[in-house]
Amino acid sequence: MRPARGPRWLLVLALAAGLAGATNLPDAAPGQRPPPGSDEDELWYAMERSERELQQHPALVRDPALNAYVRGVACKVAADYCDDLRVYIVEQPWFNASMAPNGMMVVWTGALLRFQDESELALVLGHEYAHFRHRHSIELWRKTKRATAFLNSFGLLAWGVGVGPAGQLAGLVGAASLYGYSREAEREADVTGFAAALSQGYDPTAGARLWQRMKSEEDARRYGKPLPVFATHPRTAERLADVRAAGEAAVAAGASGERGREAYIEAVRPFLATWLERELGRRMYDTSVQVIADLRPGAPEDLQGLYAFWLGEAHRRRNDPGDRAQANELFAAALDLPGAPPAAWREHGLALRDQGDRDGARAALTRYLELAPEADDAAFVRQYIDQLEARP
After folding, report:
1. Which of 24, 51, 62, 112 is 20–30 Å from 329 (CA)?
2. Integer Cα distance of 223 and 243 in angstroms
3. Angle made by CA atoms 289, 348, 271, in degrees to the nearest 5
């Protein structure tokens, strides 16, 4: 992958994704554009430049079916505002979604990995649509226009030299740390997004399920602080309490809804193996163990082997005391479950080799090559087999 020209679209999204406080401005009407020459028109112009860059970005997921599905859910919750939104899916393994004031909505694949059903996706997309409807960025834009030093810093970051995906993420974090986030705007978006999802027949308890898992992921992290981009939101525990209370109140009032689990799984199924691999590529194994362990129980039967393998991989790569034994158990278990990838045979074979079971190791590694004869590591695995056969 070639280095990108610059992190402009990510940085501008950081500015646009609800960074201002809840404003006294009237809501945007469907199809409304800012008056030509206005300061809001300036902001839209910057967003449109960033959107054109995003459309050419190598991290953009271009699969037509997945894009159509996610856009369809966004349109359900946005209702009359559907024609104002353009939805982009970006290959980034963190949980995030963003909304620009011109209708550019971005969803990261790390969020899609963590959702368990369509109702959870709808809740998050409803939250992002609410930022657009309530015009949460224009007030901050007006403030920043008066801050010359701030704008110079933003310009330096947004139009810097080309960087790769890691640099883009670093740019996003840096930009987020510059802005004064408003939790009031985030709470308003939560309320509007919840109402929008509920009005379309989605499960009112989706938020409680999602944010309970996010809190578990946050609690599992043993070092560092949350990414600054999430500082704009209410604390996870506070948010969990709010969405749980809202869901319980809705249920008590007689509301019910569909989770849409089957439709969601079918939409994301072709990408799960890649997203799980990239989740581990973050090298944040404590949280990855928690994420996959939370996803595995609710996965359909034909994906149980896939999740068992990747949970084993998360333990193996973390390599804390007891992790290797746990990984070996999961690799062995994956082989008896539907959906296990060929790599489960390789890891099981290597574990048997380390345990001194040469015959079992040779059989497992041979099976791996039968299932993945063109694997990048096929030559190395053949060497392992030759070594096992050569030993007395």
Report:
1. 112
2. 27
3. 50
